[in-house]
Amino acid sequence: MGKIILTLLSMLLVIMTKAQEDQTQIIKGNELYKKQQFEKAAQEYTKAAEINAKNAKAQYNLGNALYKSKKTEAAEKAFDAAADNTKDVTAKSKALYNKGVTFSSSQKLPESIQAYKESLRLNPQDEEARQNLQKALNELKKQNQQNQQKQDNKKQDKQQNQKQKQPEQEKNNSKLNQNQVEQMLNALRKDEKKLQQDIQKKNNIGRSNSKDW
Length: 213
Prior knowledge:
Layout: H1 2-34, H2 38-51, H3 56-68, H4 72-84, H5 89-105, H6 109-122, H7 127-209
C-alpha cells in the first residue's frame, strides 16, 4: 500500500512539475508579447504547448502571437486547438472569434462567417462577434456581386465580338460573289470575242470562194 501511494505521489509531482514548466513558458511568452516581440513570444508559447498539448491557454496565446506575426494559417490551427482543449464556454467562444478574425484577414470569408456563428452560439451577447459576422456577410455579398458583374461583362464582350465579326463575314461573302460575277463576265467577253473571230473567219472564207463577174 505504501508503494502505491509513493508511486502516485511521484506521478503527481511529475505532473505538477510539467504544469509549472508550461506556465513558466507562458509567462515568458506574455512578457515578450507585451513588448511586441511576437515571434519570440510565439516560440515560448510553442514550448508550453509542447510540454502540455492540452494547455488551451498556451494554444490561445500562441494563436494571437502568430496572428500578429502574420502567420495566419498557423494561427488558425492554434485557435482550433485552443477551442478543442477547453471546456470553458467563454474561452472557447473567444478562440473561435479570434479564428474568425484570422480567416477574415486572409479573405476566407465563408470560413470566417462559420467561425463567428460558432462563437455566437456559445456567447450570443458578444456584440463584436455579431458586428464582424455582419461585416463578413456584407463583404461576401459584395464579392459575389462583383464576380457576377465580371461574368456578365465577359458575356457581353463575347456577344459584342460576335456581332462585330458578322459584318466582316458578310463583306467577305459579298466580295466572293463579286469576284465570281467578274469571272463570269470575263468568260462571256472571251466567248463573245471568239464568236466574232469565228464569224470574221467565215466571212473571209466566203469572199475568197466567190466568182468574179
